[in-house]
Automatic annotation (TrEMBL):
This is Protein phosphatase. Its EC number is 3.1.3.16. It comes from Micromonospora polyrhachis. Keywords: Hydrolase. Signal peptide: none annotated.
């Protein structure tokens, strides 16, 4: 018997209390959800995140479950080549880059894709679990905490170049009651995971949940742009 699930989504982004522009972008559709965080301090982070979201959103269409992983890998490659094309057309954009997290689902399966330090959490059985890895030096090299800012520096992200753009893509089963959270580090770097977990388990409506999570980040000072997308499986 094939499991049939119903997906409900919501998304919200906020510039925060400190930044002068919002370098985050997100997308929620019928088969696809994404969050991209343009690299702060780099050239045109907002342009990079928007280009990637626009390139990948064309994959928001029915996809056989057996092709989800290959399709997600292809979509990320297409997004990176879109950055490359824009940089070739305008050298002022050289150096721009962005993270990306995405869910692409079909039936009872979902491909989970990640590159950078944006995150995806899954709330299942009354517990929130981080299901992506941050691609930062702190996870690769010992002693990085002794070097200012090195531990949090990205090791992988989309920047229009072929090297360093290998995303993690895994296939998961969707279970009724699952709740997925995609977010930029404007949430995960400032709001304790215990507070995220409490909100995930107590706010039933996805639209109200994204407002609650963004509000938690703003309550912590809103030091960064913050973007959240919630995907409920019913």
């Amino acid at each position: 018997m094939t499991l049939t699930v119903e997906i409900h989504t919501a998304g919200l982004t906020h510039i925060g209390q400190v930044r002068r522009r919002n370098e985050d972008a997100f997308y929620v559709g019928n088969h696809l959800a994404m969050v991209a965080d343009g690299l702060g301090g780099h050239v045109a982070g907002d342009v990079a995140s928007s280009i990637v979201i626009e390139a990948v959103r064309s994959y928001d269409q029915p996809t056989p479950a057996g092709q989800l992983v290959d399709t997600a890998v292809e979509a990320i490659d297409v997004a990176n080549r879109a950055l490359q094309a824009q940089i070739a057309a305008n050298q002022d954009l050289a150096g721009m880059g962005t993270t990306l997290v995405a869910l692409l689902w079909s039936g009872s399966k979902v491909a989970v894709a990640n590159i950078g330090d944006s995150r995806i959490y899954c709330y299942r059985d009354h517990q929130t679990t981080l299901i992506t890895d941050d691609h930062v030096y702190g996870h690769l090299v010992s002693g990085t905490t002794q070097v200012p800012a090195l531990a949090g520096r990205l090791t992988r992200f989309l920047n229009g170049r072929p090297e360093g753009v290998s995303a993690d893509v895994v296939l998961r089963d969707l279970q009724p009651g699952d709740r997925y959270l995609l977010c930029s580090d404007g949430l995960s770097s400032y709001v304790p995971e215990s507070d995220i977990d409490a909100a995930m388990g107590s706010v039933e409506d996805p639209d109200m949940l994204v407002e609650r999570l963004v509000g938690l980040a703003l309550d912590q000072g809103g030091h960064d742009n913050v973007t959240v997308v919630v995907v409920d499986v019913r």
